[in-house]
């Protein structure tokens, strides 16, 4: 993992977007695993800007949804689905046939995870995987614990993850989500890891100890040969 310190969120968003634009120029139909949350929003806005300049840039890119809350319907404004429609799929004109997602409304969560995993087995590995950092060191919904899971799976969410978004406390108990597993993440050809904002300092310090532990799933990224980790000054 290469740590790339940047001044602030604006710089992080711009540099990360530029790296994706470069990759998509080299491989227009790349498979892009999209995270949600505050960390990638600015980066997606820069990608949108690039799309307004060159309408062909993202016309073949394929997108896979990284994770979804299982406790609110996908139509909910706070769902990952709604986020991606608003910040990525709509702005970049990603057509439905180039977007692959699990539908948490279907309730057969294992079948949905198996379906997305089968897609990844067939079409993968992912060319680019975007990751944010949870305050407790999680990546996607791979939460700290005794062990981590390899495939797409249903994940029980940590309290700090639920508190990240007040809408989630209105849902079912225990709160859970569906997400890509560690295998899908670590098999990605390139990972763009965004660490931004004050709430990430403790997890960032743990990562920088360079000890690989399931208590901080993000530490596994040290084992990947191509991770660009952009970290802004507030997170350090
Ligand atoms: O709970 C989550 O948090 C992380 C970080 O969120 P952010 O809003 O600080 O970017 C996110 O990357 C992850 O997918 C989600 O599970």
TrEMBL record:
Enzyme class, first EC level, given as a word:
hydrolase
GO MF entry, a single one:
6-phosphogluconolactonase activity
Q: Which UniProt keywords apply?
A: Hydrolase
Enzyme Commission numbers on file? 3.1.1.31
What positions does the domain Glucosamine/galactosamine-6-phosphate isomerase occupy? 17-221
Q: Which residues cross the membrane?
A: none
Q: Does the UniProt entry include the keyword Hydrolase?
A: yes
Q: Which InterPro entries match?
A: Glc/Gal-6P_isomerase, Glucosamine6P_isomerase, NagB/RpiA_transferase-like
Q: What is this protein called?
A: 6-phosphogluconolactonase
């Amino acid at each position: 993992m290469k740590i790339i310190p940047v001044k602030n969120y604006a710089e992080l968003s711009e540099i990360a977007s530029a790296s994706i634009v470069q990759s998509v120029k080299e491989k227009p139909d790349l498979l892009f695993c999209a995270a949600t949350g505050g960390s990638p929003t600015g980066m997606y806005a820069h990608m949108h800007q690039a799309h307004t300049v060159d309408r062909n840039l993202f016309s073949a890119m394929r997108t896979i949804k990284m994770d979804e809350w299982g406790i609110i319907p996908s139509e909910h404004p706070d769902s990952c689905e709604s986020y991606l429609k608003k910040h990525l799929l709509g702005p970049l004109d990603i057509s439905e046939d180039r977007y692959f997602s699990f539908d948490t409304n279907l309730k057969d969560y294992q079948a949905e995870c198996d379906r997305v995993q089968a897609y990844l087995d067939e079409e993968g590995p992912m060319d680019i995987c975007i990751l944010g950092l949870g305050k407790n060191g999680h990546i996607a919904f791979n939460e700290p614990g005794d062990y981590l899971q390899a495939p797409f799976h249903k994940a029980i969410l940590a309290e700090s993850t639920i508190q990240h978004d007040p809408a989630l406390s209105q849902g079912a108990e225990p709160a859970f989500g569906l997400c890509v597993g560690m295998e899908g993440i670590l098999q990605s050809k390139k990972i763009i890891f965004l660490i931004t904002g004050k709430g990430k300092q403790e997890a960032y310090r743990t990562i920088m100890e360079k000890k690989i532990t399931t208590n901080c799933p993000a530490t596994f990224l040290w084992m990947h040969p191509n991770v660009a980790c952009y970290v802004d000054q507030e997170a350090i």
